[in-house]
Design a protein that fits this description.
Elements: E1 2-6, H1 16-28, E2 33-38, H2 43-49, E3 54-58, H3 65-81, E4 86-89, H4 92-102, E5 111-116, H5 124-134, E6 137-140, H6 143-150, E7 159-161, H7 176-187, E8 196-200, H8 210-219, E9 227-232, H9 238-246, E10 253-257, H10 263-267, E11 271-274, H11 284-291, E12 296-299, E13 314-317, H12 322-334, H13 337-353, H14 356-370
Length: about 375
């Protein structure tokens, strides 16, 4: 099949949309002709260009109607030239442009698959128009999103719930000696003082809730001086740094920066966390951490709790609740052996439920059902 992937994000950071599409490209490129049409400066364009057999096209998805019409004409040329059978869209902006690009194609119109990645409320009117004009199948990435879709006009189309998959071979626990080297590299001179390292590769945007972990650690008081926090993602804002300093944690919060490969970062950690309070659904970051053998603390936002068996492979806390996070952290400090029990359970959960092969196969089945 000839499959086209679209995505409107133009930023160079590696987010969930990028990981989602690149995972499918790597899994399916050997069996299908794959094209990616995304903004030229995006991380997805860069990473897709590196996947053997994938054809990458620089394509913008502007919001203004005049520019959108021009973008649609450009995208239509790609669809015709590449003889696209299925277009897999990943947001409302690229979805609208794809619909415009396909207007008037009649029986030659490729089938359009939409994946909803976030928990942002669905506009009834917009969804109704897109359902009628250019949606053939809808994918939700977790049960929480499926419920949203079934309560929207998208319910008129076939709907699948396909949770994000992780390459469990690539994301696997590191041997102790190698993990210790990664930890020392991350912490530097602070390694000798660190007794518990918690971290997240979910990003540093405010809504990711990482500041709740900082507030929680500050609440632990004396006896918790060895607890450090590590974060992978964009550089923190001035306001974020000011709060970290006010909490007395300036020397105990490590910002690792943007990472193409998060595995050394994750191998250094004892416990992971994703404490988002909006936008989040199933979270690639959470699943990558669990696949690396880390128990994970998650908020009850969106589909995050669907990853966790409470007390077995992680913990679930209310969103925006530093006190609840502090209680979990105090429990870990009182029983550090729980990490040794729960980490392997997280890895076992990933092997059983989060595999990339299942994710790719189920998505491929959607494409084939439309063909």
């Amino acid at each position: 099949m000839n499959i086209l992937y679209t995505n409107y994000h133009s930023n160079s950071t590696i987010g969930g949309h990028t990981i989602y599409v690149v995972s499918l490209l790597r899994a399916l490129a050997e069996h299908h002709q794959l094209t990616v049409a995304v903004p030229g400066g995006s991380s997805l364009y860069r990473l897709a260009s590196e996947v053997s057999g994938v054809h990458a096209v620089a394509q913008d998805y502007p919001s203004r109607l005049g520019k959108r019409l021009a973008a649609a004409r450009s995208l239509r040329r790609v669809i015709v030239a590449r003889k696209i059978d299925v277009v897999h869209v990943n947001g409302s902006s690229d979805h609208r442009t794809v619909i415009l690009a396909c207007m008037g194609m009649g029986k030659r119109r490729p089938r359009i698959v939409l994946t909803k990645h976030n928990d942002i409320p669905i506009s009834y009117l917009g969804a109704a128009v897109r359902t009628r004009m250019g949606t053939d199948h809808v994918i939700g990435v977790c049960d929480f999103v499926e419920r949203m879709l079934r309560a929207s006009p998208y319910a008129a189309r076939p709907l699948s719930t396909i949770a994000n998959g992780v390459d469990n071979t690539r994301y696997a626990p590191w041997p102790a000696e190698r993990a210790l080297a990664a930890r020392n590299a991350l912490l530097g001179d602070r390694a000798a003082n660190c007794t518990l390292l918690v971290g997240s590769n979910a990003g540093t945007n405010d809504y990711k809730g990482w500041m709740d972990m900082a507030r929680a650690v500050a609440k632990l008081g004396p006896g918790a001086e060895g607890v450090y926090i590590a974060l992978a993602g964009a550089a923190p804002t001035g306001a974020q740094l000011q709060e970290v300093e006010k909490l007395g944690l300036a020397d105990r919060v490590i910002f690792a920066g943007m990472l193409d490969d998060v595995r050394p970062f994750l191998a250094a950690l004892d416990v992971g966390f994703v404490l988002s309070y909006r936008v989040e659904t199933i979270s690639f970051a959470c699943r990558e951490m669990m696949s690396m053998g880390l128990p994970v603390i998650v908020s009850d936002q969106g589909g995050l709790p669907e990853n966790i068996d409470e007390g077995v492979d992680g913990w679930v806390v209310p969103k925006n609740a530093p006190d609840a996070v502090a209680r979990v952290m105090a429990g870990i400090l009182a029983d550090p052996a729980c990490i040794g029990r729960m980490g392997p359970a997280a890895r076992a959960k990933s092997l059983a439920e989060f595999g990339l092969e299942k994710f790719a196969q189920r998505t491929e089945q959607v494409y084939l059902s439309l063909a």
